[in-house]
User: Fold these one by one.
Assistant:
Number 1:
Amino acid sequence: MCGRGRGGVDPEVGEMRVMALGMEAGTRRPVLLLQEASGDHRLLPVWIGIAEANAITVEQHRVSLPRPITHQLIGNVMDAFGRHLEQVRITEVRDNIFYAELILDHHTRVSARVSDAIALALHLGVPIHAEDLVLDTAAVANTAIRAEGGDQTPDEVEQFRRFLDTASPEDFDPG
């Protein structure tokens, strides 16, 4: 669904970055892990589909494909129409389902699945944001970030990836 801005003041948002993409143990469902770029550096786990995980991986590793995949096609279509994606915003979580919007120029908002929106954001190099209400509802504290500035050692990243391999949705329940 396309639409114009809702008017009024936008809710508070935090910039996010893709921290990891792992597989849930047992079910082998992909888990996308987003992290606040500043502040508390909370983690936002989002369970996604295999095709979407592959699309995100393509963008993370800058894999060149002979033909565009869906999110790349969307970027090409926007470009052909002279439109610009300004940001991706995760707007709400309802019944454990995340909702996102593509925020385009001319105050246009388009509803999107979080996984598709993030693949497009990575492809186009635009910021990813999450509304504070989403983070307050679904994010968890990040204990892997060191207090002196957020840098991670390779061991910390590997330890976290091992955690993702054994994590389940209940491990992220903010309680």
Note: The mean pLDDT is 84.
Number 2:
Amino acid sequence: MIKISGKQVVAARGLLEMTREELAEACGLSVNTIWGLESSKRQAQQATVRTVVRELVARGIEFSNGTGLGVRLDFKRAQEYAASHPAQKAATHTPE
């Protein structure tokens, strides 16, 4: 079972500079489904969580749940995704 919080999804979208609408479209889900997952107002189905996680991870996001909740952006993987998906909006952050 994959466990991520709605706050982690919001943070991941922020790192990717991705709107809720863009994530919903990329996942083939409704904006309301993404909103429900992010707001934790509804219990998301595991298939939905897997779809969202898979899409975010493909774009370079890494989730961690050690002693807290974590989200980070792997710049190399984000750049590789952007290179292989030129029509997709990619994260514009670069390491300093």
Note: The two ends are 35 Å apart (CA to CA).
Number 3:
Amino acid sequence: AGGKMRGFRVYPGANRQAFARMGLRAGDLVTAVNGTPLDDKDRAEEIFGTLSSSTEARVSITRNGRPQELVLNIAQLSSEASSLGVGGDGNIPPDPAAEAPAE
């Protein structure tokens, strides 16, 4: 909005079931993590980098134009990502190509 980043659009990767179990749906716009807005790419990378030391994360999303809150189990995410061979430390790096276009 107004040429400013609003968040990251998310889509399932190789493990669609894990994505759905987290409560996410293809095309959700993740706008904040633990109350911190994802309106800056550098800040978003910092936030995603700190999640590996957390047990859960409160994620604000916009789905079909409506705001929602999800609580994600980070330990489960890390375990499932490791089993898929995503990143040596189980972290899934944010994909800049998935950034939401300004609306």
Note: Residues 86-93, 95-100 have pLDDT under 50 and may be disordered.
Number 4:
Amino acid sequence: MKAKSQSSEGRFAYEGLDRVIHERARLSVLTSLVTNPRGLAFGELKQLCALTDGNLNRHLRVLENA
């Protein structure tokens, strides 16, 4: 059996995954929003995803732009 070489993207980089939505923090944001259809305040979303203000803001911008 031939050993797999690691790509520059890392050992968890699988074809077919979209980095925009499958990045851990953004997937957490999307999951939190989907499971709370009435929406969440920024502070609630930040707490659920265990992110800082700046991190959450950045991930929300990436999702919005996509």
Note: Residues 42 and 57 are 9 Å apart (CA to CA).
